[in-house]
Amino acid sequence: MREGCHTRLPVGRPRVHVCGAGGVRWHRVGRVDRKDFSDPAFVGKSIPDPGFAGDDGTADPALTAALARWSQDRAAAPEVLAALTPTRLMVPIVALLGEVEVDEHGHKHDKTSDMAVPVLEAPDGRRALPAFTSLEALARWRADARPAPVAAPQAAMVAYSEQADTLLIDPAGPVPYQLSGARLRALAENRPYLPPVHDPEVREAVRALLAAEPQVVTGLLAPSEGADGVLAVVFDPALDQPGLQAAAQRVGQAVAADPVLRVRLDRGLDLAVLPATAQLPGEPLYRR
């Protein structure tokens, strides 16, 4: 590794394109995951009261406005996340045929049926839980689905419980939106999503791993268009080339193994090894 070069640290998950904008085609998986909602009256008949009394089934105006802005300008994504966290979504519940009986005339009749949460799957195997901002958006997707209103963070938790890594909001429109990776985790934890370079937990994790590497002189975490950030590091100028390469590799391994960074980063960090004479473009995150 030469001084001043960049390398991508293998941290986080690959970014997922937004359905409707990135061309991802989602389809229902053959298996629909059954859910036990405890209340016997739920099976084939009703949905438990989620505590949204007076909900008329319309979309939250703030979320609708944020999605409309995002559809015209992808830079408005933070507005969508901010509007999404406190709102209500609808998780679809569909009837799943169970036991069938045949009458004396040879006609088949449904004897039992279950209610289930459908899960969607992309061609590459990624799984998504559909969720909807309104009854109208749900009907666009599947008219026979019943709505289970839940708080948006709870919808994210349902996605995780279904082994889905994506929450697919309004897949049939009016504005499809896809949430995954660190943003989905932030929603599930009911906290605001912060870009990694501004996230205090990310910054502290990076500072700690830089401090743990004795050959690091100083380091800076800066924004990047192609990654979650650039980790610019100046190592001990007394190191020879093999020593410099080994130190940089240890930093990369520490980033990849850090439990906080593994869940807070989607696209990883770019590692920039700078010469000792370099002027860092900002206040260092760490200085020995």
Major β-sheet annotation: 5 strands, mixed
Number of domains: 2
How do the SSEs run, as a string of H and E? EEEHHEEEEEEHEHEEHHEEHHEE
Helical content stands at: 25-40%
Could you tell me how far the N terminus lies from the C terminus, measured between alpha carbons in angstroms? Answer: 22 Å
So how many helices? 8
Supply the helix-strand structural class.
Answer: alpha+beta
Task: Round the Cα radius of gyration to an integer and report it.
Answer: 24 Å
Roughly what is the average pLDDT, rounded to an integer? 81
Number of strands: 16
Outline: elongated
The percentage of residues in β strands lies in: 15-25%
Strand ordering within the main sheet: 1-15-14-13-16
Question: Could you explain the architecture of this structure?
Answer:
The radius of gyration is 24 Å and the shape is elongated. Strand 11 (166-169) and strand 12 (177-180) form a beta hairpin. The chain is 28% helix and 25% strand. It is built from 8 helices and 16 strands. The strands form 4 sheets. The chain has a 5-stranded mixed beta sheet. It starts with 5 loop residues before the first strand and ends with a strand. The protein folds into 2 domains: 6-13 and 195-287, Alpha-Beta Plaits (2-Layer Sandwich), CATH 3.30.70; 31-188, no CATH class. Residues 6-49 have low confidence and may be disordered. With 288 residues, the chain is α+β, with helices and mostly antiparallel strands. The relative contact order is 0.18. It has helices spanning 61-72, 77-84, 135-141, 152-161, 181-188, 200-212, 241-257, 259-264; strands at residues 6-8, 27-28, 33-34, 88-97, 100-102, 108-110, 113-117, 120-121, 127-131, 146-151, 166-169, 177-180, 216-222, 229-235, 269-274, 286-287. Helix 1 (61-72) packs antiparallel against helix 2 and helix 4 (152-161) packs across helix 5 (181-188). It comes from Streptomyces kaniharaensis. InterPro entries: SseB_N.
